[in-house]
Design a protein that fits this description.
heterodimer; A: alpha/beta; 44% helix; B: mainly beta; four-stranded antiparallel sheet; globular
């Protein structure tokens, strides 16, 4: 990887981390409506995978989707405003954390577990029919792979050789249920074999491995070879949502995974390979914190949507 | 400058919470991330961590009281630091 690229990836990962920490803080102040699922600890999957895409490719995300959105290039000011239900948000404050969509940036999400898996296949089918050579990256968690539509979609995507890459972020817990209690297999990627295509299990905290693996899969999808299932093994440092005390896992396990913090790993590499000095990194960190503060300012100043506009954009 | 400790909103429809127990006394030192008080919501009981390091200067909300979310329930600051009047009622 080019040095310049590496620095960009580091910046994006930090931007996600600080954004999430700010959402965590704002939630306790009653400023984020509904719920909030944070992806702290999983940043390398979002940034590594999206780095393998062209700008006009699409991604579909999950309930834990802030990292994917930022990695796909959504503007954090408009995104922050959306999460606060403000008029200047991506969906005029109506979608919030679970349903934000930005077609211009190729980003869709849905709060239902695995809800975007069949939607992603629909987008991929459209790309194939239009012969546009665009690709869809479809993110979901370990829990979603036990849902019926995961299996139906993998089968039809394989059969029709859709330009799609399935990315499972296996963070070991579906809410409070350990993967050990919900499936017998060790590697979720094996499920691809049942549908006749390739699956790979990789270290999701290593951005280099994520990017390289997704690049190969994207090329296959674009060339009409068909889908790939990539299981990225990772960990969420925070609870499932804000009121989760994590009683289903041990503090020791959390500490072990914090040693594999993807941001720390990349930070150490940047210093060891003399790409950036400690001083330059601190400067980057300060700048990104400032950028987050500006996004909060923008969201705070943005007005609430006018109640008289509530029937706009309704199709039902 | 002192840090206001608020009753955090932890759940989507949470309007208030009950302070079950303060884990520190006024005058105790506290580190950011250390458990500061036990909070009970309609759904669960939580250990709430301090958001700042310093000395617990004042406890405003008493143990056993029900408090609306985001109201100031304590003050953390430097040892001996003066508490602004609006927090010192």
């Amino acid at each position: 990887m080019e040095k310049k690229e590496l620095i960009e990836y580091y910046k994006t990962m930090l931007k996600i981390r600080y954004f999430e920490e700010k959402i965590d803080f704002l939630f306790t102040r009653g400023l984020i409506h509904g719920t909030a699922h944070l992806c702290i600890g999983q940043e390398a999957v979002a940034v590594g995978a999206c780095a393998a895409l062209n700008e006009d490719d699409f991604i579909t995300s999950t309930h834990r989707g802030h990292g994917h959105a930022i990695a796909k290039g959504l503007d954090i000011k408009k995104f922050m405003a959306e999460l606060q239900g403000k008029k200047d948000g991506y969906c005029k404050g109506r979608a919030g954390t679970q349903h934000t969509i930005c077609i211009e940036k190729g980003f869709l999400t849905n709060g239902i577990t695995g809800g975007c898996i069949p939607i992603a296949a629909g987008i991929a089918l459209a790309f194939k029919m239009k012969k546009s050579r665009q690709v869809v990256l479809c993110f979901f968690g370990d829990g979603a792979t036990n849902e019926g539509y995961f299996h139906e979609t993998l089968n039809i995507a394989a059969l029709w050789k859709l330009p799609i890459v399935f990315i499972c972020e296996n963070n070991l817990y579906a809410m409070s249920t350990s993967v050990r209690d919900s499936m017998l297999i060790e590697d979720i990627s094996k499920r691809a074999e049942a549908y006749g295509f390739e699956g790979k299990s990789i270290d999701g905290n290593d951005i280099f491995i994520v990017k390289k693996t997704v690049e190969e899969a994207v090329k296959k999808a674009r060339d009409g070879v068909g889908p790939t299932l990539i299981e990225c093994k990772t960990y969420r440092f925070k609870g499932h949502s804000k009121n989760d005390q994590c009683v289903y896992r041990t503090r020791e396990e959390e500490e072990e995974w914090k040693k594999k913090d993807p941001i720390l790993i990349l930070r150490n590499k940047l210093i060891k390979d003399k790409i950036l000095s400690e001083k330059e990194i601190i400067k980057i960190e300060e700048n990104i914190k400032l950028e987050i503060e500006k996004a909060v300012e923008f969201a705070t100043e943005s007005p609430e949507p006018n109640p008289s506009s509530m029937y706009e954009n309704l199709y039902a | 400058m002192v840090t206001k400790v608020i009753l955090p909103k932890l759940e989507a429809n949470m309007e208030e919470g009950r302070i079950v127990k303060w884990l520190k006394k006024e005058g105790d030192k506290i580190k950011k991330g250390e458990p500061l008080f036990v909070l009970e919501t309609l759904k669960a009981v939580f250990d709430v961590e301090a958001e700042a390091s310093g000395t617990l200067l004042k406890i405003i909300a008493k143990e056993g009281s029900n408090v609306p979310v985001t109201s100031v329930i304590a003050v953390i600051g430097e040892e001996g630091e003066e508490i602004p009047d609006e927090l010192n009622k």
